[in-house]
Fold this sequence. Notes:
Elements: E1 11-17, E2 20-21, E3 30-37, E4 46-52, E5 60-69, E6 72-79, E7 90-99
Antiparallel strand pairs: 1-7, 2-7, 3-6, 4-7, 5-6
Amino acid sequence: MSSTTVTRGNSHETFxxxxxxxxxxxxxxxxxxxxxxxxxxxxxxxxxxxxYIANQTSGVFIVEADCLxxxxxxxQFGNFTAxxxxxxxxxxxxxxxxxxxxxxxxxx
Length: 108
């Protein structure tokens, strides 16, 4: 898609995905990294969680999302309650930013 006639930055493309996830329980006052197969994800993708499409389980938050292995989405769920809870199963929204090359270490 990129062209030499178009001003380009380091973001090659940005798109959204909404995979259906079935998370496992998260112990009280902890976080849990959980993995899900999402074909096409790349380890260089920047993944920004947008949230759960319906109602999330009370006290559960998405702390972080990454692609540490090609095609595998890693989501860190946080449980900020006094008991074990299971994040809601269903569609989750993520913004994917695919860079044009290595991400620069600074903005200079």
